[in-house]
Amino acid sequence: MRIDQLLVRLRYAKSRSLAQARIGKGHMRCNGQRITRLDHAIGMGDVITMPLGPSVRVIEILSLPHRRGPPSEAQACYRVLDAGAPIAIADRVDRSFAEGIEGNTPQ
């Protein structure tokens, strides 16, 4: 299934044109690889990483939806792997700084 269709059917975009605009920004990834084409094929088991407001959403595709249905139907097709975590780079910097303060550095 095309990534733009999937975003609409999973209710992450209201229309295919809005989904294509999100994909075109170049911030989405499939299995760690940047998505550069609007017709990128997505299958079951793929992990999608996408910006969602000030955070990042990571989902695993459990099944491919046949239509854009109600939210409960869409949510049954994926599993959230990282529930709205802050941007990963900022989190990593904070942790390394905190480890140095607490004296948890390797000797």
Notes on the structure:
This protein has a single domain (about 5-100), classed as Roll (Structural Genomics Hypothetical 15.5 Kd Protein In mrcA-pckA Intergenic Region, Chain A), CATH 3.10.290. The chain contains four helices and five strands, in the order ααββββαβα. Mean pLDDT is about 85; it is low at about 90-95. Helix content is about 35%, strand content about 25%. The longest helix has 15 residues, at about 90-100. α1 (about 5-10) packs across α2. It has a five-stranded antiparallel sheet with strand order 2-1-3-4-5. β1 (about 30) and β2 form a beta hairpin. The protein is an alpha+beta fold.
Write the layout of secondary structure elements.
Elements lengths: L2 H7 L6 H9 L4 E2 L2 E2 L12 E6 L2 E7 L9 H5 L2 E9 L1 H15 L5
Antiparallel strand pairs: 1-2, 1-3, 3-4, 4-5
Helix pairs in contact: 1-2
- Provide the CATH topology: Structural Genomics Hypothetical 15.5 Kd Protein In mrcA-pckA Intergenic Region, Chain A
Number of domains: 1
Known CATH architecture = Roll
Q: Which strand order spans the largest sheet, edge to edge or round the barrel? A: 2-1-3-4-5
Number of helices: 4
User: CATH first level: which class?
Assistant: Alpha Beta
Straight-line distance between termini: 50 Å
User: How helix-rich are the residues, as a percent range?
Assistant: 25-40%
Low-confidence stretches: 89-94
CATH superfamily: RNA-binding S4 domain
Structural class: alpha+beta
For the secondary structure, the number of strands is 5
**Cα shape:** globular
Give the ordered list of helices and strands: HHEEEEHEH
Average pLDDT works out at 84
Tell me the fraction of residues in β-strands, as a range. Answer: 15-25%
Main β-sheet description: 5 strands, antiparallel
Radius of gyration: 17 Å
